[in-house]
Design brief:
The protein is mainly α and about 160 residues long. Helices cover about 65% and strands about 0% of the residues.
Length: about 160
């Protein structure tokens, strides 16, 4: 018994692959920052919450309530895996905050300008109140920095281990 227990204790787990770490960063980044977005929505800092991602589909009135916000958080967490891999392809080499800040701003511009027509509940930026604009820009920038800096750090670690 002691011999088997010693073998289990000395066994090392396989480390996560680089792509698995990117996916994990994406999921946790999406869950974290969309949850903070829901908190901002709940306390009326922003007029839109995570359920915005569900608006293009006719799913019923539940998507406008609490359950819709929770489902929106989960969907954003899943979509963030794609966002993280796009960042990996474009900016992983840059070990700085600036690419993440830029990435967050670009994501905000894509959602609020380019994708605005597919979100029926989203007013144009000119018709949004300043609290919503400032809060969402800040959340997107922080999200971009989280994704960007985390991926850049992992990239630098992989390079360090390989050399």
């Amino acid at each position: 018994m002691d011999n088997q227990q010693t073998l289990e204790q000395s066994r090392k787990d396989e480390p996560m692959s680089y792509n698995a770490k990117i996916a994990t960063i994406g999921i946790f980044g999406g869950l974290l920052w969309s949850t903070l977005g829901y908190i901002a929505f709940f306390f009326n800092f922003a007029r839109i919450g995570p359920a915005l991602v569900l608006m293009p589909w006719a799913l019923g009135d539940w998507k406008n309530g609490y359950i819709g916000q929770i489902v929106g958080i989960i969907v954003i967490g899943l979509l963030s895996v794609l966002v993280a891999f796009i960042y990996k392809l474009l900016f992983e080499r840059f070990n700085s905050l600036w690419p993440g800040i830029l990435y967050g701003i670009v994501l905000w511009l894509i959602v609020f300008y380019l994708l605005n027509p597919i979100f029926p509940g989203l007013k144009s930026v000119a018709n949004l109140d300043s609290n919503t604009i400032i809060t969402t820009i800040c959340l997107y920038v922080l999200y971009g920095v989280f994704i960007g800096y985390s991926i850049s750090y992992e990239y630098q670690e992989v390079k360090r281990v390989q050399s």
